[in-house]
Design a protein that fits this description.
alpha+beta, five-stranded mixed beta sheet, about 700 residues, 26 helices, two-stranded antiparallel ribbon, single chain
Length: about 700
């Protein structure tokens, strides 16, 4: 070892340890032991902060502080990362990157956490340490599961299971299989989840670690509660709680208490549910586990709602809703919105109830679509993975059988050896031809895949717009009609929603018109039929059509187009362009603003400009407006919703009519959309 050249860093580390000491000792002996070992190591002669043992202890302590002092997790991991890089200690570097990734994961910064976990996996592979690779693989898979990419999560879990099997790493086999079980549980595929949990229980029995078994029993208890098997849920929760209390595993104990509360809640015993939820809540005051708090707070909200304490219920539900939005937990937001809908419905605050009903409906639709897609993707991914493994095993067996045959023949007479040699040469030639044929088929498959992607792109875009921009308003309309039909709101209250319903129906009509036109151009190749078009008439008709919207926002619509502004273009397509651009101008112009339409005569073209006094756009937004694959959905000054389709449709229509479209905008000053169209010459007029 070299002497310590950085006493100021040592002092910084000691400060962290002192700040954490009281809280750490109250939680678990492991933290005490790590702190003591670090201090003892620092006091040894010729101590170096870059010693690998010191780095490993820093990483271990950082992980132990994850749920108690998140800032220390980040600081200690960063220290370990700096020391590891300076000494090229790959294993320490990989674990430090995992620690930083965990910090950002708990904060809901999924992109950052994925980046750090991927880096940890790459560094772990360089270190040739199976433990670091498996840890990074597991956390990376978990992060993809948090953001709903279950296909990637399952791939990383299954790859990790293969590595753990090869290395006979029982601990990681238990963790990875349990996380796969959790994936299926989140999909409500309880049968498949239970199969994996049973496998995990067997592995835990082989390991003989009661804490691992207790963690699994907690997850199984949660699964049984969701299934309605409350006796099994209670049995597993109680067994887990006894182990966690004995070993002072506070973060898992808080989770187990919450699961026991959920079991009572499912059984309709709200007072007992609150008792165990409060036990969990007291522990959460000492730990930092935002994901665990969402289910806890929402459970408490439901329990208080069950005993008629709506105001307390609302407080807990709002807290849970805020946390779930903060860390981007879609499922948590959905459940909280459902609870808040019930609370506001009881209060007869139908405006708030409708708002949360719309949020719940929108998230339910999204989760339902995603869950179906994820379930199919997971099944397909697993089947492909198993098929690849089976094919590899079969191929390996074939190769081994062939090699054994060669060896046996080679041990025979020389003549047979010569024959075998000739056969090997022939086999290599056949293999080469087969490889060439396989390569050709692979290239053909890739070409077919590109064609299929192009076909699916149009379909995906169509369904995306239908799902996000039409189903929401329709679902809200259905919900309101159901409330009226069931007698939960009076006729005068129902009539109070008419302005909003009228606006939603207008939005649906406008969206459908754009959608059908775009769909025709994409799928059937709509034909452009140019003729002499009087632009002043098209503009006047659309001003009349949109005047009611302008009147609501007190916006002046000014038409400066003179008579005989004639173009050679498709009247239906230009009508769509003008309507979209004026509608956009109205949407992004605040009340008492003005929208002006002018036309300038060029040598061969008319240049039409639609100028507004609205909010304007940034350069970054302007760059994305007319991209082919971009559907930029924004909200107007009065929260008017757009489809994100109009401008790409306008660009397509203008270009089909030999024109160009562009925009000039100043942020918070307003925007001007320009487009050009060919002038209607005399020969065009005679032809028409």
């Amino acid at each position: 070892m070299i002497s310590n050249p950085l006493p100021q860093i040592g002092f910084f580390l000691f400060g962290i340890l002192v700040l954490c000491t009281t809280q750490i000792r109250a939680q678990h002996e492991t933290k005490d032991s790590l702190e003591t070992r670090i201090i003892e190591l620092r006091n040894t002669p010729n101590f170096s902060a870059k010693d690998t043992t010191h780095i490993d202890l820093l990483n271990d302590l950082a992980y132990e502080l994850r749920y108690y002092k998140a800032d220390s997790l980040l600081q200690l991991s960063q220290l370990a990362l700096d020391y590891s890089k300076s000494t090229n200690y790959r294993t320490g570097e990989s674990f430090a990157l995992i620690g930083i990734g965990l910090y950002y994961s708990d904060k809901g910064s999924h992109k950052k956490s994925i980046l750090y976990f991927k880096n940890a996996l790459s560094v772990g592979k360089l270190s040739k340490s199976s433990t670091t690779v498996l840890s990074a693989q597991n956390y990376l898979a978990s992060e993809f599961a948090y953001i709903g990419n279950y296909a990637k999560a399952l791939i990383y879990y299954l790859e990790g299971i293969d590595i753990a099997n090869e290395m006979d790493n029982k601990k990681m086999l238990s963790i990875l299989n349990e996380n796969v079980a959790n994936l299926y549980a989140s999909q409500k595929d309880y049968v498949q989840a239970l199969e994996f949990y049973k496998k995990v229980k067997k592995i835990n029995e082989e390991i003989g670690n009661e804490i691992y078994s207790a963690e699994t029993m907690s997850n199984i208890a949660s699964l049984y509660a969701d299934m309605g098997e409350l006796e099994y849920a209670m049995y597993n929760a109680n067994a887990a709680i006894a182990i966690f209390e004995k070993n002072k595993i506070m973060e898992w104990l808080a989770y187990a208490y919450s699961i026991k509360g959920k079991a009572y809640l499912k059984g309709g015993k709200n007072e007992w549910a609150l008792y165990w939820y409060r036990q969990s809540e007291m522990l959460h005051e000492k730990i930092q586990d935002e994901r665990g708090k969402i289910e806890l707070l929402n459970g408490m909200s439901q329990a208080y709602l069950g005993i008629g304490k709506d105001s307390i219920s609302e407080m807990y539900a709002l807290d849970a809703f805020a946390i779930s939005k903060g860390i981007k937990d879609m499922e948590g937001s959905q459940q909280c919105a459902k609870t808040l809908y019930k609370i506001n419905k009881n209060k007869e605050d139908y405006t708030e109830a409708l708002k949360y009903h719309e949020i719940f409906q929108s998230l339910s639709d999204t989760l339902s679509r995603n869950e179906n897609k994820k379930s199919l993707t997971m099944l397909k991914t697993k089947m492909e993975h198993e098929k690849q493994k089976a094919d590899l095993i079969e191929e390996n067996n074939k190769q081994l059988d062939m090699q054994r045959a060669y060896v046996n023949v080679a041990l025979g007479i020389l003549l047979i050896f010569i024959v075998v040699t000739l056969l090997v040469g022939r086999s290599e030639k056949i293999q080469k031809n087969l490889n060439l044929e396989l390569q050709k088929k692979t290239e053909d498959l890739e070409q077919n895949e590109l064609a299929l992607h192009e076909i699916n792109r149009t379909k995906d875009k169509l369904f995306s717009i239908i799902g996000h921009d039409l189903r929401g308003p329709i679902a809200a309309f259905q919900g309101l009609l159901k409330l009226f039909k069931d007698g939960e709101i009076e006729q005068n209250e129902f009539m109070g929603f008419m302005p909003k319903l009228s606006h939603d129906i207008d939005h649906i009509s406008f969206t459908l018109n754009n959608l059908l036109t775009w769909g025709q151009t994409q799928m059937n190749g709509a034909v452009t039929r140019p003729e002499v078009v009087a632009l002043e008439t098209v503009v006047k008709d659309n001003i009349d059509l949109l005047s009611e919207i302008a009147k609501i926002k007190s916006i002046r619509l000014v038409n400066h187009l003179e008579a005989k502004t004639l173009t050679w273009s498709d009247s239906n397509q230009i009508d769509i362009v003008v309507r979209n651009l004026i509608s956009n101008a109205l949407k992004f112009t605040p009340e008492n603003g003005m929208v002006t339409i002018t036309a300038i005569e060029r040598k061969q073209q008319w240049q039409v400009s639609i100028r507004d006094t609205g909010v304007g756009m940034t350069e970054k937004t302007i760059e994305k407006l007319f991209l082919e694959n971009c559907t930029l959905t924004t909200y107007g000054t009065n929260n008017e919703k757009g489809t994100g389709l109009g401008l790409s449709l306008c660009k397509e229509m203008i270009e089909k009519n030999d024109g160009k479209i562009w925009v000039e905008s100043l942020y918070r000053k307003g925007s001007t959309f320009h487009f050009t169209l060919p002038k209607a010459k005399n020969k065009y007029q005679r032809t028409a």
